[in-house]
């Protein structure tokens, strides 16, 4: 397993899907691993979970736990497997339990505001 670092990042962060705001938070955590781009994780309490449905996809990741994927359902579209969460993370990722990360997609924006 690569060197995993998790830190709280400053400021207010927002995630939008097709223009709709899915969530806004000042409690975002950033996971960095090796040379991979950092990933922002939002606390579930700050996400409109009514717009997310479990997709049925899950991936076992060595040293991390099982990633459970979610579809984002808007009025006009469904973005499949657009978010993921570690429901029972390994000890190394225990800080991000009950947090969600979002794929980097054209229709999905994660940004600091």
Automatic annotation (TrEMBL):
InterPro entries: DUF427, DUF427_sf. Coiled coil: none annotated. Residues 14-103 form the DUF427 domain. It comes from the Bacteria. This is DUF427 domain-containing protein.
């Amino acid at each position: 397993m690569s060197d995993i670092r998790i830190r709280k990042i400053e400021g207010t962060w927002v995630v939008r899907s097709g223009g709709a705001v899915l969530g806004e938070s000042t409690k975002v955590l950033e996971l960095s691993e090796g040379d991979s781009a950092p990933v922002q994780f939002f606390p579930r309490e700050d996400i409109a979970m009514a717009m997310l449905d479990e997709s049925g996809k899950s991936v076992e990741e060595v040293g991390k736990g099982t990633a459970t994927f979610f579809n984002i359902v808007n009025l006009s579209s469904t973005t499949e497997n657009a978010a993921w969460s570690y429901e029972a993370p390994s000890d190394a990722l225990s800080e991000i339990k009950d947090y969600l990360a979002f794929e980097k997609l054209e229709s999905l924006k994660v940004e600091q505001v």
